[in-house]
Amino acid sequence: MKIGITCYPTYGGSGVVATELGIELAARGHQVHFITYQQPFRLTGREVGIYFHEVAVTSYPLFQYPPYDLALASRMAEVAEFYGLDLLHVHYAIPHSVSALLARQMMAAKGLRLPFITTLHGTDITLVGQDPGYLPITKFGIEESDGVTSISADLKAVTERSFGVQKDIEVIRNFVNCDVYKPFEDEAKRTELRARYAAPNEKIIIHLSNFRRVKRVGDVVEVFARIAREVPAKLMLIGDGPDRSIAESLALRYGIQSKIHFLGKQDSVQELLPLGDLLLMPSEMESFGLAALEGMACGVPCIATDVGGVPELVEHDYNGLLYRVGDVLGMGAGGIELLLNEPRLKQMGLNARKTAQDKFCTSRIIPMYERYYEHVLQARNGADGTP
Q1: In this structure, which CATH number among 3.40.50.2000, 3.40.50.300, 3.30.750.24, 3.30.565.10 belongs to the domain 187-360?
Q2: Phi-psi region of 196 (alpha: psi -120 to 50; beta: other; left: phi over 0)
C-alpha cells in the first residue's frame, strides 16, 4: 500500500507512535509518505520506502495566525494525487482529521478516492478536544473519518462518552519494537555505560516525557528525593519542556541537584532505558503510557499512576506498581521497598519484558493496522460502488 501519515513531528507520544508505525510499515514493504511541517524527529531521512513532504505555511500580514490546517489539506491532496496514495492515516485529531477531510473532498472533485483514518492519542480527546471552541469540529472530524482507532480501551470509552460519537472505534494499542528496545545482552557493556551516570553501588531511576504539566515532573523529583534518602541512587531525566524549571527548583530545594542528570531530548532512548533499574511515570493522565512500555521492553519495571489506559499495560505488583495521582509518599515507599529487594526487582523486570513481548511488540500490533487499512479500503470501495 501507499500510505500518507500526518502527525506532530515534535517530541511527544503521538509523534513517536506515528513515526515508528511508518518505519515498521516501510520495513514490511509498504510505501510511506510523511506529510507535516518538519521531518519527524525519529526519522533520519535515509529510511528505505519512507518519503517526507514538507507543509510550507506562508505568512501574510493579513493573517495573524498562518492557516496551517488549510496548507496541510492542500499538501495532502497534492501528495496523494502525485504518488497515488491509497489512504491517509492522521494521528491526533486536531486539526489533522479535518485537514484530511478537506483533502478527501478535493480528490473527490477530481474523481479520485482518498479515504482517511484518524488515530486518537489522548489529549486531542481528553483536553484540547473538549474545549468548547474545539469540541464540535473535533466530533465532526472523527465522525467523518473513514476509520477511527484508539490507543487504549479507556480512550475509546472516554471518546464515546464525551463526544457521543456513533462511529465505530477500533482499539489498536501502542507498540514497541522488542528487537530494538531490549535489555543489554552484554552485562559488561551495561556496567561500563552505567558508570557514566552512577557509581557501582547506586541505582538508576529514569523518567522520560515532554515535561508538560500533565506529566507531573515535580512529582518525579519529589519521589526521587524520598528514594534517595534511603537508597544510593541517581535520577536520569530524559526529555525537556515547560516544567523543567519546576524540576530544577525542587532539586535545589531538596539539595539533590548533584544526583540528577538532565539529559534533554534524546533520539536514541533505547540506548538509555536499559541502564535503569526503575522508571517513574506519575502522570495526571495517560491514555496509554508509551514511555512505560518502552522501559518495560528494556526490562525496567515502572512506578506509575492508576489512570487512563495505564492499567491496560502495567499490572500492579507484577510488572510494576500503580498509585493514585499525587501519592508521592506511596510511590517513594514502594520504590524504596522494590529497590532494596533485588530478587523482586529482577523478577518484576523480567515480567515487564515478557508483557511487552507477549502483548505489545510490533510483530503483534503492526498486522492489526494492516488489516484495518484493508478493511477501510474495502468498505470505502464498496461505498463507492467499485469492485
Answers
A1: 3.40.50.2000
A2: alpha
